[in-house]
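If your schedule permits, I should be very grateful for your opinion on a structural question. Kindly check, if you would, that the fold set down in the tokens agrees with what the sequence suggests. Thank you for your consideration; the sequence and its tokens are set out here:
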Amino acid sequence: MKLKLFSGFLLTILILNTSQTLAQRGKDGDYVVGGTNQIVNTYTSLTVDAAVGATSITVANNGMTGGVFGSALAPGDLILIIQMQGASINCETYTSTANPSGGAFGPYTVPLPYTFAYTWYDHIHEWGELNWFGYFNEPYNGYNNSGNYEQVEVQSVSGANIINLQCGLTKNYTASGHVQIVRIPRFNNLTVPAGTSITPNLWNGVSGGIVGIEVDADLTVNGAISADAAGFRGGQLDAVGNSGGTSNLAEVRFAGTHLPAEGSEKGEGIHGYHTELDAIYSRYGISAASNGGGGGGYQNTGGGGGSNIYNGALRYTGTGVPNPTYNVNWALDFCYPNNNSDPQSYSSLNGNVSPGGGVGGYALSQSDQNENTLGPRQAAWGGDARKSNGGRGGHPLTYDPARMFFGGGGGAGDQDSGQGGAGGKGGGIVFLTVYGNTTGSGTISANGENGQQTNPSNTAPSFTSPRKGNDGAGGG
């Protein structure tokens, strides 16, 4: 089969081929997809923590009808249990009046263990990371139960909220980490003709974003099975902004703050979204929270891109992969730290590649200078000196075959003229268990969504408003 498997950061596709014998395989018969955007799954959520060995789980609703299911969940049906979030990230709240960016006083957050007195901005790339060293230099793993998953056959249901399992759980699940239960159709043969498609419900913070299917015999895909832009949500626009200036050219914006004037919304990741980021005073700001992109910093910078898995040795700096077409420009910019040497050293962005999402664009400039000869953070640019305060790209996640993750959402761009772009949604998950052959010329994909462009409604300039597109675009 010709499978166009898109390999960007925002991709999670898993196809299992196995000879394991299950008594109820194929129970839903043959199925031919008859239209576009067909939803074959139903979803519910875990309401009580579940531990290794448990043979029952408590959910919001165990009926799980809909999709291709005309009857309620029953013995022999298959479910996927997966914890979407619940990771811990590197940050600490700081409430001193010695505010680094001159805005309203705290609380705001900085990376552990660097308070303002220890030049936290030199370590801004460490804010939001999942593996770090604590106060006593001990290693810390913040993944917790996020990404844990397993497929289990249903033994029975009880009342409206209990699902009894054929075998005990092999992993732990924390309900507050948004654990969803996906009912998996057990087809004999599945055919996706050209011009048809299977998609999931969009992730809404509780459930969705996953296409899960079991096929006992053969899977034929000439259309599409897609979880594109179905994963973690992008940062949303806010209407509040601050003005920058040229008096402090080295100024670095907030890593994490609770005030929209001090930064734009971060994208969603395995740590969480609005509720979880509000709890640590960090819905806004340029640093990335786990694999979600950072929000654009004032004034008018772009949001950072989301991320997913990286399995290599490069150090994360939050700047992504600079397009070599513009190496002459990157040579005039700097990366902190240099990801191939001493973490206290600077280097230019030219050739300095970072895993994870890409960094957001530069701050406002109001003078027409030559970017091939004049780098950012120069007073001649006017405005906010074209400072490099864009949202940092999402942190790369560590590959672990026992975990699955959505792609991170992009951070929102910063706006003060109503022309900013929201962050794009991350890729969802396509989870296929196929016991026979997989053939066809279609696509199976889980791409992320582009960030919204600046001036997304394409409003034309006018005499009273001659400039459009002044604000920051969203991260992808």
